[in-house]
Specification:
Strand content: 5-15%
Number of strands: 8
Number of helices: 12
Distance between the termini: 65 Å
Shape: globular
Helix content: 40-55%
Structural class: alpha+beta
Largest sheet: 4 strands, antiparallel
Order of helices and strands: EEEEEEEHHEHHHHHHHHHH
Amino acid sequence: MIAWKNARPDTEICIDVTGSRSIITRQGAGIVDRTLAERGTIWLSPAGVQEDLINISDLLPGIMHIYLRPDRFSPAALGIDLDQSVGASLRYRHSFKDPLLAEIAYAISSELQYETAAGGLLADTLATSLAARLVQAHLGVSLSQAAVRPDGRHAVDRRRLARVLDYIEAHLEGDLTLDRLASIACLSQFHFARAFKAAIGQSPHRYVSGRRLEHARALLAAGDRPLVDIALALKFSCQANFTRAFRQATGQTPGQYRRNFSV
C-alpha cells in the first residue's frame, strides 16, 4: 500500500504496458476505484488532486508513469488559449481504456528499450500528443479541426519550412527540441508536428533520426573519430544503441562501414 500526503504538481498518467493482472485499488477525490490491471489499462491523476492511497495486490512489472507539466497544456504547446488550470480541470476518475493513449505509451516504452538518435524529440512530440488527447477526450476541446484550417493558419509555408530544415542541419550534433523547432516555424508544438509531417512525409523525430544517421555516414567516411564520440555527438545514449540503429539502416556496423573507406 502506498499513501500520499501532498498533491502532485503534474498530471500523471499511468498505463499498464504488459498486462500484470494485479488488482489495483485507488482512493482519491472521493472516488474508490478497484481494477484488474490489463494491458492498456489507464489511470489518470490530474495535477493538484490529492490521491489518498493505492493498494497493489501483486507485482507490477510493466506500469509506465508519465508526468505532464502544466506547460504541456499551454498555448505554445497546443495552439489554443486554455485556462491555466486546465490540468486541474481534468477529473480524477476510475481506470479506463483509450487506444490512442495506450499506443503513445507503447511507443515511449519502445524508445526506452531501443533508444534512437532523436528520442528526446520523440518524447516531446508524444507528450504534446498526450496533452492534446486529454484535452480533446476529457474536456471536449477540439484541436484536430484547428490543425487543418483552410486559411492555412496552422500550415508551414516553404520559407518557414526551409528555416526549420536549415536549423536541423546546423544542429545535428546539438539538442533539437520540439519547442525550438515549432518556434522557428511560428507554430504551436501540436500544430508544428502535424504540419511538418504533412510537408515532409515524416514526423520530426523520424526525419531527425534519418538525418543524424546520414551525418554518421559522413563522419565515418571522413576520418577516424572514435565511434563512441560519434554515438554521443548524435545523441545516442551509448555506442551499442548507435551500432544497432546504424546496422538496421545500412546492413553494416559503423566499423564495417568505415573500413570500406580505408586505403
